[in-house]
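Box 3.1 A note on notation
Throughout this textbook, protein chains are presented in two layers. The first layer is the amino acid sequence; the second is a token string describing backbone geometry. Keep the layers aligned when reading.
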Amino acid sequence: MTGTGLRELKKQRTRDALLRAALELFTTQGYEHTTVDEIADAVEVSQRTFFRYFANKEEVVFAVQDMVESHFVDALRRRPPEEGPFEAMRHAVRSAWDTIGEAIGQVVPVELHMRAYQMIESTPSLLAVHLRRSAELDEQVARLIAEREGLDVDTDPRPRVAVAAFAAVMRVTGRLWGQGEDPSVEAIRELTEDYLDHLEPALATDWRAPAARPARGRTDRTPPAAPAQADRATRTSPDRTETAPPAAADAPEREAGAHTE
């Protein structure tokens, strides 16, 4: 290995050590009660060295989360173009959960990252930052979805609406997982899958009808619709293969309606 390679390796090890030490201190004694000096002392480096790698404590807290979010966005970019928006996002997050554990483990123990996530959810100042960052991620994903679908995100609301619904599920499951007793990747993945299974039925207008879960691993782009809603679903589907209702069949109804108004 060259001298440059050794220096870069040493820098990466120092950064990872600072990150691990910071997250351990944050999760054991609290974010607000932990100082930069304590983090630096734990790694036996100076405060000046800490600031070579991180601008502040907040940047340390979200360093691994940055990696997780980038992992999801990269997975979404790789999804086949024939997949619909919801299907692509769901498969991307599933793919991310399959591989993110190993990626996180190369930097910090997965269990430590999970504890840090729970700390973010329970610390008001960090939760506010987390929500702001989530809004920025939602916008990035909405623009990516619009690009996949050949749409202008600033004139067509569907990409932002679809991402908002999907992101809401991710935030709800993250919060519930953070309040639970199992801090494992498997636990949050199972909870997320369960809630995503219920997303489409929850958007149906008739909640009194029994909710039928869509089968996992669907490959078609047409969401299941209740019999009473099937015609409406066909007419209003955001799919590019949208089917318009026959004009002749509806004309009498429109005429009758006009005479009775």
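The two ends are 83 Å apart (CA to CA). Residues 255 and 261 are 10 Å apart (CA to CA).
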